Amino acid sequence: MIEITDLHIPQLDMYIDKKEAQLLHYFEPEPGLFIAESPNVILRALEAGYEPISILMEKRQVEKKAGEVLKKVGDIPIYVADLSVLTQITGFQLARGMLCAMRRKPMPTVESICQGKRRIAILEEVVNPTNVGAIFRSAAALGMDGILLTHGCADPLYRRACRVSMGTVFQIPWTYLSKEAWYEETGHLLQQMGYKTVAMALKEDSYAVDDPKLLAEERLAVVLGTEGDGLAKETIADCDYTVCIPMMHGVDSLNVAAASAVAFWELGKTGADQKNV
Fold first, then answer.
1. Can you give the residue ranges of the tRNA/rRNA methyltransferase SpoU type domain (predicted)?
2. CATH code for position 37
3. Helix (H, G, I), strand (E, B) or coil at 207
């Protein structure tokens, strides 16, 4: 355990001087780093097999829940300071006074994410880390078996996405899709694997989200689009189904994270589940 007296030591540059996009390429061409915040999120990352590099934490948290983390991280540097110093270092108030720099894992293949799964989600250009984190939390809680993201999506391992997800980004498998024309390649692969694709879009000629025909499908891939504009027209046209969540009281749409929770809850069911509701 190392008490911080110099804010500019090289060992702290990953916490102070590096933006999250820079951490992504920290060990290039090897996978880079990410920063996990709060004991609960760090514990879930450790349980998922992510390797800790170092910890930066508030001194008074050592005897609290952070102590459970310290028992599991092995022989790594633990940098401690008063909260006022940490706020000065990081530029923000720490959630429960603890950050952990961790190594990323290599990205799995789309095939490994989807093989043998019943329900997956696909995120198209969802750029807000808060929304990505919230979608992961809903996906993990409401029956999705994996998540695929286009390259325009916010990184699920960004600090805010991890925190909003409550660490579920480490519990549900995910990977990125190809950068260009993702549906042309991935749609064909999903079709070969027995999936039907469901575009969540505000269209009048759509299926209801609880339509028995959807629930009867053995495998579904639920496709959600970017904040504001939603899914690309080409994506909607290429999907097997278009599904709309009905709106009331003049509301035109839901936030993508809220819409994901509704879609996952309904489309995560089977026909047998629906009969018992």
1. 120-264
2. 3.30.1330.30
3. strand
Encoding tokens for residue 89?
């270092």
Q: Is 55 helix (H, G, I), strand (E, B) or coil?
A: strand
- Looking at the fold, whether 139 and 7 belong to one and the same domain comes out as no
Domain end point (choices 103, 122, 153): 103
The enclosing domain of 242 has a CATH number of 3.40.1280.10
The answer, yes or no, to whether the previous bond of 29 is cis (omega within 30 of 0) is yes
Distance CA 168, CA 193 (A): 26
Q: Is the pLDDT of residue 160 over 60?
A: yes
Structural element, H or E, at residue 221? strand 220-224
- The SS3 call for residue 119 is strand
The predicted pLDDT at position 121 comes to 97
Q: How far apart are CA 157 and CA 249, in angstroms?
A: 37
Q: Are 38 and 163 in contact (CB under 8 A)?
A: yes
Is the domain of 133 the same as that of 243?
yes
Portion of the chain with pLDDT greater than 70, in percent: 90
End-to-end CA distance of the chain: 54
